[in-house]
Amino acid sequence: MPAIDADFLQAFTDAWNRHDIDALMSFMTDDCVFQSAAGPERCGTRHAGREAVRAAFAQAWASFPDAQWRNGRHFVHGDLGVSEWTFTGTKADGTRVEADGCDLFTFRDGRIAVKNAFRKDRPALKD
Fold first, then answer.
1. Cβ(9)–Cβ(83) under 8 Å?
2. Nearest to residue 46, comparing CAs of 107, 13, 38?
3. Are 68 and 87 in contact (CB under 8 A)?
4. What angle do CA 29, 115, 46 make, to 5 degrees?
5. Distances in Å between the alpha carbon of 1 and those of 26, 42, 50, 70?
6. Alpha helices (runs of H) in 19-113, residue ranges in sequence order
7. Domains of the chain (ranges, CATH numbers)
8. Which tens digit of pLDDT belongs to each residue from 2-43?
């Protein structure tokens, strides 16, 4: 793995935008955790372990087949990082989402151990 810096986080974002699950998982530790922006828990929904995280990541594209994370800005300080972005996507029923958000990362051993996602709660856009 390359050094963890802004380029590392941009490469992670690029994998999201290519919808490349294998590339995404190459950035994650074996015991990774993904806390999604929505869900019943205080943290959203917590997905723990490679298989659970892989399934949750893939679900994003199933829900929004054209999902993209644009306008990225990335910051790394030690074992912590932040990516700011604008999410856009269209659901199968035609409703569109465009909202700003960010990911907070915890790094360990050159990979992402925790990805904690936050996104503005904005009504669906009308065409």
1. yes
2. 38
3. yes
4. 95
5. 9, 32, 17, 24
6. 21-26, 50-63
7. 6-119 (3.10.450.50)
8. 689 999 999 999 999 999 999 999 999 999 999 988 766 766
DSSP state of 40: S
Whether the CB-CB separation of 52 and 58 falls below 8 Å is answered with no
Element (H, E) at 17: helix 6-18
Query: Residue 97 in contact with residue 124, Cβ under 8 Å?
Result: yes
First to last CA, the chain: 42
List 82's β-bridge partners, or say none.
75, 104
Cα–Cα–Cα angle for 45, 50, 54, rounded to 5 degrees? 65
Beta-carbon contacts of 81 under 8 Å, excluding residues fewer than 6 positions away, are 4, 9, 74, 75, 104, 105, 107
- In one letter, which amino acid is 73? R
What predicted TM-score, i.e. pTM, was given to this entire model? 0.90
Count the alpha carbons within 13 Å of 78 in the hemisphere toward its beta carbon: 1
